[in-house]
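Could someone model zinc ion with this protein?
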Amino acid sequence: MVAALNLPRGTARNQVTTIKCRDHTFELNAKQEAFLAHARARKMPFAYFDCQSCSRSVKLELSTDKSAQSAPLGRCPVAGCAGWVVDISDIVVDSTPKRWGCGACSTTWIDDKSLFAAVKDIIRKFPHRAAVYVRKGSGWAGVSLSGEPRDYVAQVEREKLK
Ligand SMILES: [Zn+2]
Ligand SMILES: [Zn+2]
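Reply:
Sure, complex below.
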């Protein structure tokens, strides 16, 4: 039995971070660990990870340093992925600067234009996606977690079957 570590610090134990959703305890996989390291380096206030048992999004509080915080922009526009898009402009990925990234599927977007094009595409392909994005200027932003359909994650899961 692995005891869940307290969320606020998200303490790594032998490189494995244990996170607790309401009903389950899970260890981050390698991709999630890599994203967490990036998130810490970026001093992001929090990061979301999908529970590996129920796909519920679990918010992990990371930093209380208000001077360098970056909130998620919104949901990841990749089919079958219910992750979150975050600003990774301070992080070098594959030696090319990227603007946005998703910690769940590791997709990156080089700039706003490429991300917004991906959002447009996913809404065209899966109209239920329109519920989690709002128009913002010439682009898109995410609605708040409480504004999302309750079964959003389940809807996204079903995209994998299409
Ligand atoms: Zn769970
Ligand atoms: Zn993703």
